[in-house]
Design a protein that fits this description.
The chain has about 140 residues and is an alpha/beta fold. Helix content is about 40%, strand content about 15%. It contains 6 helices and 5 strands; from the N terminus they run E-H-E-H-H-E-H-E-H-E-H. The strands form 2 sheets. It has a 3-stranded parallel sheet with strand order 1-2-3, covered by helices on one side.
Amino acid sequence: MAFGAFDLIHPGHLRFLREARRRGDRLVAVVARDESVRRLKGRAPTFNEGERMEIVGALRWVDKVVLGDRAGEWTVIRRIKPDILCVGYDQDPQHPALRHQLAALKKKPRIVHLPKFRVQRHKSSLIKKRIKRSL
């Protein structure tokens, strides 16, 4: 299982999802709700949650795509019961709400913190700045 906003899919997202898929025999990608993106990033996503789910679901490394929970809930982990949780370099595997959900599970998933991939080039906020400058 891997979590993300996945707004404006770029090579960093592709690398993240490909690496997450390599960790198991299936990959469930959890796409953040619009309200969560607004809260976490301080802005609305470029594509709405339905569009982002469609885009992520079309990627060959993703076996299933689901919509994330409302902010701070993380109940999708209890529903899906993944063996492995892959988190990105900018995600906190020690987040209190995540730890709370994991504590409620009988079988705890292994958490894999995936490394950065060219963040100076492949980071959504930097890509958006480059796009704005080019307009």
